[in-house]
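Work Package 3 (structural annotation) set out to generate three-dimensional models for the target panel prioritized at the project kickoff. During this period the team completed the workflow that converts sequence records into discrete structure tokens, so that structures can be stored uniformly alongside our sequence database. As a representative example, we reproduce one entry of 496 residues exactly as it appears in the project archive.
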Amino acid sequence: MQCTFAVTLSTKRWTNETKTHCVEAITGWLGKNFPADRLPANIRVRVRPLGDDDVYRAEVMNTQPSGMDSILITLAALSGQLVFDLRERFVPSANSVIPRRKAALPPKPVLGLVAAMSQLLEVYDAERRVDGKVRQVNAELEGQALAADFRDAPARRLPIIAEFVKGRDPSTTITGSLAGDLVGVASVAHIHDEKALNAFNDYCGSSVLSMNYITVLWPRGVQPFTLHTSQPSKEQILGPILDAAATQTEPVVQLLGRPTPRVVEPTPRTIVVTASTPNTEELDQLRQQNDEQRLHIDLLDQELEEAELERDELAETVEARDQEVSLLRSTLADLAIELHDLDTELARVAPERSMRNVLEAVVRAKNECRNLTFAHSALETADKLQGPMPRKVFSILKALDTAVGEWRSDRFPLAGLRSYLRDELGLDYVAGISDNAEQKFGANYTITHNGKTIVLGPHVRHGRGRTLLRIYLHVDEATKSMLVGKVTRHLEDSTS
């Protein structure tokens, strides 16, 4: 598989409404460019709807004799951020030796989708908005600021294409026309004054930029690349940038289960043939239909082969996992015995640090967690809870405390809390309860704290059977606070 184009846009400034708008934009784009009623036989569209894992995927596959071109679109919440990723890939036909595809700009409709997503997502690179506009550098201070972004911005991930354009119409320059096509891949800076150019070079301590040549300023300390020609072609500028972009790592998403994708099949086209001898036009139509059906069959054969390979890999994985689970259970039993011995020793040596039950774990967390508030009901329910290991309860509360601290420092918005807890801290966090549970069993989720009635909803799930645990919370977006309301087993709802 060869990646010929890749772009990733991620933002920490988003809400669930933002995510919904992005899905609607992608769905509308698919409907406009790949309508189900006018798809050729060699093109298929697969859509994986947004599920509980916060992952939406769409793939457009175009099968040709030389291989299959695909556009893979992913929208996912990862580590608190909302990430949009688009990749163009080429899979050569089996048993064929053909030239490797070069990295290249995708068709205009694909670039249009990337541009639209950059407007929906508030994406920044080194504190500068990624929006496809040319950065204008007119004064010395602006030249120094550009140099600082080049040398002293470790968070910058995109290259900058810098060109000196004094005395020319910026809109007619080759780099000016590239800015809109390279959204999320690179940015463009136009320098309009010698003083700004000199200020840039003085800041860097060397002649990095020239009045005569275009320079690519790579991020992360990589040496800049200068095109030593006064009239470089578009391919000369784009080549190294697109090659670098195509090699960037694809975001790792965790898919829950394997929901059946929605497949948009091409609509069969009926050709009516009269009883009379077919003319040349009818024969051509039949041949074309036959060729399209052959391509469709080839595509189905390829998908069947991939499914069989995936099935075999899954069978091997399941067998390996079974062995791993058996080994882990044995190790867990040994660790449980060791932990019991350590707890006994701790209670003897330092009784004030020992946690003999869930209540003691919650009390200790209340004393140590600076970003959490504990309601009296949390202590009451913890006192009644038997079964879950106190240290696990304590570690979950400490993880929640860490997450709230990161939320307050604006590392991610409230909408990203769930994915941050999942990806960074390994917690199974649910943002709310079902409408049915709230309507029928609302009293179970209601507490009183500081004289106010508060409804609990968000909760952390852990364990099963004897170790089943639920920590019910109240999250206030306005004050960026989290209240621990109940530490208990599963509260009553339609499933209990």
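The chain has four domains: 1-121+247-266, 123-232, 268-353, 355-488.
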